[in-house]
């Protein structure tokens, strides 16, 4: 992972985009992307850069999919005022933005990279073998991300119309996709390991690794293992075979510098759709993190409004009783269960005071999420933030926890305890860097003692008898900034849950246990859609799965990998 914030500190990565496309305005670039005759004047490097930016510029995904859907129902956050009885169904209608992003923003650009290279003379193609492999790897990553909650998707025949292919691509089944992606990633790794021909690189157009083939090689191997982990329920023997092969070959992420993540400039997330205003911390996470002195607590969540100054003002102004005792803990999580919210009506109560500046202020008891972790430009006290946002896709910590799980289950590899502790430390260090880059207000830097004490705390210290529970709990916390993977952990392992070291609430509404969604509401093409026949065929095929649910719109149904 190469940070880019120092190079683009003033203007963010948009400065880089403008420099790359200085010869053509935005309208011209759009024209080029829709006219195959004009495509050759765009470079593979420019198309790759555009794809990377588009992967991370999906503000509607944060607004709808993360803030209002995945993070509340996985208990990472709670809604302003508490979750209502219908909070899951109320907030899923506009989710699944990744599907549209892939087919309109991301996949087309990455396929263009590959096709531009394929149109070059053989000698030039040989020099760009690594570039083509990297574009294919990133396309696999995002297609996998889309399929993860959609099941069958167009992939092998997608984006080919401008190159003489079909305008009605078939939908590949998820089972076929997992076979294909494994084969492709294995071939990509072989290509990236071959240095027999001097290679052209994406250079600074590669916002992840600055064109480093050795970094992308580790990423290919790590992504292969990560994708295979989804097979743990539906095809455990295949997972074992792939994991054994990958671990034997080596070449995985080795430390946090290998992470596939983007650190964007200080203008990237400005604007309303990135705004995380009003979302609170969850009691389940805060209680666990407090009990074990988790250093990430101050990264994930803000202290509540009861500073000593505000507390004293509240007492002096009669907003609190005169005999009130100052609460030394200022991290307070909110109940996730709608019934618990109803049973504790005063939990979200705010008290009004005149603050030290003589202005009206509401004192909120419950801790809010750290706004600047998600939107570094967020304005506090009329001061606009100037930090840099981190978008993690695949990290060393992810791979550590996965290797720990594989070893603990006896599937592949060894030293579950060692990999578990490496994952814990890598995650804590990662979030410390994220916090510093985002310039969280009043952030206190991590200390070595905090890491050591956390690893030795009662809820974290390794115990072989409950190894998978511990690993799942820590992996879940690690995915705070990658909510899709936190959701996947819950679906794949059924952990964390009410009995794991990190104990989640049992969410109930009117006494009825609320289950979390398992997939997206799937698109049903209408008769005017050119690809309606393939869409209907795919839905019919997926419906043969006994776990599919009651129809395409059933978000509690399951895709192929999420077997009961």
Overall average pLDDT: 92
Could you tell me the strand content as a percent range? 5-15%
- Order of strands in the sheet with most strands: 1-5
The first-to-last residue Cα distance is: 36 Å
Query: What share of the residues lie within helices?
Result: 40-55%
Q: How does the major sheet shape up?
A: 2 strands, antiparallel
Globally, the shape reads globular
Content-based structural category:
mainly alpha
Strand tally is 12
- Please count the helical segments: 22
Radius of gyration: 24 Å
Poorly predicted ranges (pLDDT <50, ≥5 residues)? 1-40
Report what the structure shows:
The chain is mainly alpha-helical and 564 residues long. The protein has a domain at 280-384. The chain contains 22 helices and twelve strands. The protein has a two-stranded antiparallel ribbon. It has a two-stranded antiparallel sheet with strand order 2-3. A two-stranded antiparallel sheet has the order 4-10. Helix 3 (44-56) runs antiparallel to helix 6 and helix 18 (416-438) packs parallel to helix 20. 50% of the residues are buried.
Secondary-structure blueprint of this entry?
Blueprint: H1 13-20, H2 26-34, H3 44-56, H4 59-73, E1 77-78, H5 87-90, H6 97-118, H7 122-127, H8 129-150, E2 153-154, E3 171-172, H9 174-193, H10 213-229, H11 236-249, E4 260-263, E5 280-281, H12 283-291, H13 297-300, H14 308-316, H15 338-343, E6 350-354, E7 360-364, H16 371-374, E8 379-380, E9 383-384, E10 390-394, H17 396-408, H18 416-438, H19 448-455, H20 467-478, H21 483-493, E11 508-509, E12 512-513, H22 532-542
Antiparallel strand pairs: 1-5, 2-3, 4-10, 6-7, 8-9, 11-12
């Amino acid at each position: 992972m190469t940070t880019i914030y120092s190079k683009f500190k003033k203007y963010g990565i948009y400065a880089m985009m403008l420099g790359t496309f200085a010869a053509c305005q935005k309208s011209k670039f759009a024209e080029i992307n829709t006219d195959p005759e004009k495509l050759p004047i765009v470079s593979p490097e420019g198309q790759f850069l555009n794809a990377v930016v588009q992967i991370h510029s999906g503000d509607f995904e944060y607004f709808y999919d993360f803030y209002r859907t995945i993070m509340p129902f996985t208990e990472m956050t709670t809604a302003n005022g508490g979750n209502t009885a219908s909070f899951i169904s109320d907030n899923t209608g506009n989710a699944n933005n990744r599907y549209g992003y892939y087919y309109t923003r991301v996949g087309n650009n990455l396929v263009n990279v590959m096709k531009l290279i394929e149109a070059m003379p053989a000698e030039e193609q040989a020099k760009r073998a690594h570039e083509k492999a990297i574009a294919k790897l990133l396309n696999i990553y995002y297609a996998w991300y889309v399929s993860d909650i959609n099941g069958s998707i167009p992939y092998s025949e997608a984006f080919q119309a401008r190159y003489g292919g079909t305008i009605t691509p078939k939908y590949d089944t998820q089972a076929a996709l997992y076979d294909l992606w494994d084969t492709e990633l294995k071939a990509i790794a072989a290509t990236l390991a071959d240095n027999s021909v001097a290679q052209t690189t994406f250079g600074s157009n590669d916002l992840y690794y600055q064109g480093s083939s050795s970094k992308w090689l580790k990423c290919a191997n790590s992504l292969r293992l990560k994708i295979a982990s989804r097979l743990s329920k539906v095809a455990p023997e295949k997972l074992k075979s792939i994991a054994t092969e990958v671990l034997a070959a080596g070449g995985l992420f080795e430390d946090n510098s290998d992470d596939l993540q983007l650190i964007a400039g200080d203008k990237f997330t400005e604007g309303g759709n990135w705004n995380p205003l009003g979302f609170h911390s969850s009691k389940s996470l805060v209680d666990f993190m407090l009990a074990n002195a988790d250093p990430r607590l101050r990264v994930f969540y803000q202290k509540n409004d009861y500073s000593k100054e505000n507390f004293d003002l509240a007492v002096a102004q009669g907003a609190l009783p005169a005999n009130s005792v100052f609460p030394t803990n200022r991290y307070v999580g909110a109940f996730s269960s709608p019934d618990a919210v109803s049973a504790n009506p005063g939990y979200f109560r705010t008290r009004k005071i005149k603050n030290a500046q003589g202005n009206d202020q509401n004192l909120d008891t419950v801790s809010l999420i750290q706004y600047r972790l998600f939107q570094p430009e967020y304005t506090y006290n009329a001061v606009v933030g100037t930090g840099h946002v981190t978008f993690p896709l695949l990290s060393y910590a992810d791979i550590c926890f996965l290797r720990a799980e594989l070893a603990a289950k006896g599937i592949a590899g060894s030293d579950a305890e060692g990999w578990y502790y490496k994952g814990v430390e890598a995650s804590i260090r990662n979030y410390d860097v994220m916090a510093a880059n985002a310039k969280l207000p009043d952030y206190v830097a991590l200390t070595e003692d905090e890491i050591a004490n956390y690893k030795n705390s009662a809820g974290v210290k390794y115990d072989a008898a409950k190894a998978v529970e511990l690993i799942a709990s820590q992996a879940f916390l690690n995915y705070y900034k990658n909510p899709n993977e936190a959701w996947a952990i819950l679906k794949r392992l059924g952990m964390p849950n009410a009995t794991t070291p990190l104990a989640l609430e049992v969410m109930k509404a009117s006494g009825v246990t609320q289950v979390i969604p398992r997939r997206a509401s799937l698109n049903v093409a209408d008769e005017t859609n050119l690809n309606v026949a393939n869409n209907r065929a795919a839905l019919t095929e997926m419906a043969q799965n006994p776990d599919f649910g009651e129809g395409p719109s059933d978000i509690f149904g399951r895709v192929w990998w999420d077997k009961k």
